[in-house]
Structure formats: structure tokens, C-alpha cells
Amino acid sequence: MALTSATQRLVAQFEYTDENVNIGVKEFLRQIDEGLHKSGTSMSQIPTYVTAVPNGTEKGLYLAVDLGGTNLRVCSVRLNGDNTFSLTYNKSPIPKLLMVAKSSQELFKFIAEHIAVFIKEHHYDHYEHHIRRRETMSSPEGFRDEHIFRLGFTFSFPVQQVGINKGFLIRWTKGFDIPDAIGKDVCALLQEEIDRLHLPVKVAALVNDTVGTLMARSYTSPGKTGALLGAIFGTGTNGAYIEKLSNIKKDMEGEYDTSTGEMVINTEWGSFDNQLNVLPTTTYDIKLDQESVNPGIQMFEKRVSGMFLGEILRIVLVSLLQDESIPLFHDDNSSHNDWKSTTSIAAQSGMFKKWGLDSAIMSVAALDNTPDLGTLRLELDSQLDVYSPSLEDAHAFKAIAAAIARRAARLSAVAVGAIVLQSGKLTDPAFAGEPIDVGVDGSLVEHYPHFRTMMYEALKAIDGIGEAGAERIRIGIAKDGSGVGAALIALVAASMEKKRPTTIEWLAQMRSEASLKTLKEVDSAVEQEAEETAA
Ligand code: ADP
Ligand code: MG
Questions:
Q1: What region holds the Hexokinase N-terminal domain (predicted)?
Q2: What tens-digit pLDDT sequence spans the chain (535 residues)?
Q3: Which of 214, 268, 387, 493 could form a disulfide with 204, with the two C-beta atoms 3.0–4.6 Å apart?
Q4: Ligand in nearest proximity to the CA of 207
Q5: For residues 93 and 358, what is the distance between their CA atoms, to the nearest angstrom?
Q6: Catalytic choice (185, 209, 273, 437)
Q7: Of 116, 127, 16, 27, nearest in space to 74 by CA
């Protein structure tokens, strides 16, 4: 009984009502606008200089690297030009030690080594060809331009982008902390390590994962208009959307194409309402923030994303475990337990360690609707070293986890709903009846059961959206979005590079020139060109 009433009390603390949602949306709209007017605001609203989205006809083979918060993905993407693509990828967990390495070189070396492994494994002909060429050339990077893989680098941390393949790290998030990287160009750091391994790869574009998701959704969704928003709900959370140039009032240094009248803005909404004007805040949220590497920052993200939901749950459960009047994960004798043995929790349980409870178990809890919650109870045993959890324990765990996840989904709807309203598309007669496309990516939204359904419930409750508006919002998983998006932006970058004549065109031209003395000179000139291109 004590556990049941404690559970109900906790569930109530995580309730986020329709009224809260509407208050949240109003404040979100205010902070969007503030970020468009000046810098130094809680939501950074970073201009990306990307002024158009793809339409599905783009073609080519590109490499992409995605440094998320949890995993490193290396992939190659073939864009077929008909809204479809094929993708090959390798995925590896980022070692925790590298996230707080002494020098950023360690992290970028790790990435370059994974690129090398990937090319060897999946594009061996290409790789071998380069080794052969390299040995015949005077310069160690003597690749022909057409043999160089263009790489889109998805780097999901706040960056001040100053060019298509140049951007300075503003701050780390999601538990990363490598001070010497702050203020440095992350593309140059990666290129340096790639060159050290003599790989035929050029970092052609720097891509935020949200922008990549937006691009990917636009590429794959057939229709008149591209997607409005790309959003991530994985380790962290963030969104990038299409804003009217006329609404961007702060100074923009770089050059950009004004013909579309629009630009993609990277909101950095993980830091929405750092000042806590409207965000729901329990004692558990406060504790999590105080014990984080960046207290006071990324306050929205700390209530929404995969990295933090498990930790909130863990902090709540520890508080229950510390309360002796509440029998969580312990019963005095087996007569209380339908599994007929007494519950205990091991001292080494992740429950007692920071970040020791992975949000993935919350999905298991939500999916298990059997009368004895058998799957969840086995998972509590195998993942958290809770020996023979009782049915009551499992019920408490399930209910509290669900409340935390539901609050997260409804907060996510605040961000999505505010951006839909900001776009004006729901009331613009030019878009009447048109769907409003939103691409989402990240393990949380992909795997947590009914995450999107819970978002839709909240979207319907937003003034100015309602049932009819919510029906027009099409939230779809942009599967492999960051890889495809990075490839698309690498394509744009490649087309922007100064157009040179191909070697064959150039060779023909040189041969025809009477001033040219010997073929030997031509060959050395070809080598020279290749060296310049690689440089
Ligand atoms: P990244 O952010 O590195 O791109 P992901 O999108 O895979 O990676 O997100 C990883 C985050 O998602 C981790 O914080 C993890 O705890 C969480 N996560 C993974 N699987 C699940 C799941 N089934 N349910 C809820 N959260 C999950
Ligand atoms: Mg990701």
C-alpha cells in the first residue's frame, strides 16, 4: 500500500497538463523570436546558411560520419535520384573515456580510424586503388580529385558555423567534456587525423544532425513542398527548421543565397528555457541538474532526451529506496512475492551509479502489459541486478517510468507545435490542406512505444493547432536521416567547389598546345594537379 500511494504521488509530480503545454508553447515562441533578434539567448537559433532543401532528384555516392552522443556511425550513401537511396553503415559505441579525453586529438583519431576500417570493409576496390596510386606518386596524398570521397560530417554539438565545412565548437553537451576542442574548427580537427592515415577522404560539409534529418526527410518525401522541421530525440534533443529570411533580424556574417527567401535555423532547443520560466521542475530534476557536468544549461534536454530520462527515473527510485517506510525492491519474506523468493538489490546495481539506468529499460517497461510483468521483471534482474523483483515493484517501476516518458513526449510536442505555429503554414491559404512534414530521428522517438502518439495528443491540445491542425502535421521517422542528410549536404558542397576541368579534358588541351615539349612533362603535370587537388 505504501508503495502504491508513493507511486501515485510521484506520477502526479510528473504530470504535464494541456494547460502547461499551452503555456510552454507561448514561451517557446517568445524564445524563438528572441533568438532570431540577438545572440547570447538561451535558444541560440543558429543560422546554417542552408537556404534550400532537396527535392529527391539528387544523385551520387558520398561518405558520412555521425558523431552522436552515444554512437559513432560511419556510412556511405548512394543517392539514386528518385527519392530513394541505399546506405551501408558501421556503428560503434563511443568509449566513455574518449568523451572526457585529455585532448581532442584522441577523439578525432578514433573517428579517422573507423573511417579507414569502413572504407577497407565496404569500398575495398576504392581503397586498394588508392594504396596503389599512392605508392606511385611523389606525394603521399596524391589522389585524383575524382577518386576522393566527399564526406559529410554530422557533428551533433553546438557549433558556430562559418562555412559549409568550417565550424567552431561553442560548447560540449550530452556528457562530453574535452576543453581543448572549444573554439576550434571541428572539420579541420577531423581532416588532420584523416590525412595522418592518408585516406582519400575530404571533409566537405559540416552538418548538424537536425539539419541532416530535415534534408533527409525532404529528399525522401515526395510532394510539392519540403519538410518544415527536422528533430532529434536520441541521446540529446534539438531541432532545425525553415525560417523566413525576413524574420532573422540578427547579423549574419557569411554569404548566402537569398533567392528562396528562407534559411534553415538550428534552434539548439535543448537549451530552451534555461531560465526555467515555464519548464516543469521536480526535486529530481533539480538533483539531476546539480550533479551534471553543465548545471543550468540544456534544461529542456534534461527533461526530454534519452540520456536523461533513465537518470531521472534512477534518482526517483533511489529516493524511494532510501525511504524505509516504502518497500521497494525488498520484502522480508517470500510469502509477499509471487516468485517465491525474497527480493534484494545488489550493491553493484546500476541503480546506485550515476547514469546506471539506461532509458532503454523504460521502453521494456512500457511494452510489457502482461499480468505478471514477466519481461520487465527479468529485465530488472539482468540489467539492474534486482533479484526477484515482486509484481508490486515492477508495477511501481512501470508507472513512474511511464510518467517521466509521457512528460518528455508532451514537452517534445511543445517544441514541434511552437515551430509549426511559427511557420504560419496552418493558416496560410497557399498551403491549405497540405501536410506539414516533420522528420524525426533518434532511438527515443524510434523505440519508445507510442512516443509519437503521446506527442500528437499534446499537439491536439495546443491553441491554434487543435485536432484539425494536428492531423495535417506528419511526423515521420527519417530512418538513417543523419547519414542521408550529411550525404546531401556533401553533394551541395561538392557542387559549390570551384569547377575544374576534368583531367582528361585538361590533358587533351595540353597535348594540343604546341608549346608543350614532351609527354613526360604532361605526366608530371598530371601528378602536380592531383597533388594540388588533394591539398
Ligand atoms: P545518438 O544520440 O548517439 O545519435 P541514439 O539516437 O541511438 O544515439 O540515442 C541513444 C539514446 O537513446 C541513449 O541515451 C539511450 O539511452 C536511448 N535509448 C536507446 N534505446 C532506447 C529505447 N529502446 N527506449 C528509450 N530510449 C532508448
Ligand atoms: Mg543521432
A1: 7-219
A2: 689 999 999 999 999 999 999 999 999 999 999 999 999 999 999 988 888 888 888 899 999 999 988 999 999 999 999 989 999 999 999 999 999 999 999 999 999 999 999 999 998 877 666 666 555 554 444 555 657 899 999 998 999 888 889 999 999 998 899 999 999 999 999 999 999 998 999 999 999 899 999 999 999 887 667 899 999 999 999 999 999 999 999 988 777 888 889 999 999 999 999 999 999 999 999 999 999 989 999 999 999 999 999 999 999 999 999 988 888 887 776 777 788 777 788 889 999 999 999 999 999 999 999 999 999 999 999 999 998 899 999 999 999 999 999 999 999 999 999 999 999 999 999 989 899 999 999 999 999 999 999 999 999 999 999 999 999 999 999 988 888 999 998 988 887 764 444 444 344 444 433 333 333 443 454 455 555 545 4
A3: 493
A4: 2
A5: 14
A6: 209
A7: 116
CA 74–ligand 2 middle distance (angstroms) = 12
Backbone angles phi, psi at 412, to 5 degrees: -60, -40
Residue 207: its H or E element: strand 201-207
Find out whether the beta carbon of 423 lies less than 6 Å from any atom of ligand 1. no
Give the atom of ligand 1 at the shortest distance from the alpha carbon of 233.
Answer: 6
Tell me the ligand closest to 71's alpha carbon: 1
Q: Map grid coordinates 614532351 to a residue.
A: 518
Which residue of the set 42, 44, 76, 156 is catalytic? Answer: 156
How far is residue 459's CA from residue 442's CA, in Å, rounded to a whole number? 20
Place of cell 512528460: 407
- 308 alpha carbon to ligand 1 midpoint, in Å? 10
Residue 332 appears among annotated catalytic residues: no
CB 327 near ligand 1, within 6 Å: no
Q: Are 44 and 159 in contact (CB under 8 A)?
A: no
- Please give the distance, rounded to the nearest whole angstrom, from the Cα atom of residue 374 to the centre of ligand 1: 23
Which of 376, 443, 480, when mutated, tests ligand 1's pocket best, judged by the most ligand atoms within 8 Å of its CB?
A: 443
Running DSSP on this structure, what letter comes out for residue 299? Answer: T
If one counts every other C-beta atom within 10 angstroms of the C-beta of residue 15, the result is: 12
Task: Please indicate whether residue 171 is annotated as part of the active site.
Answer: yes
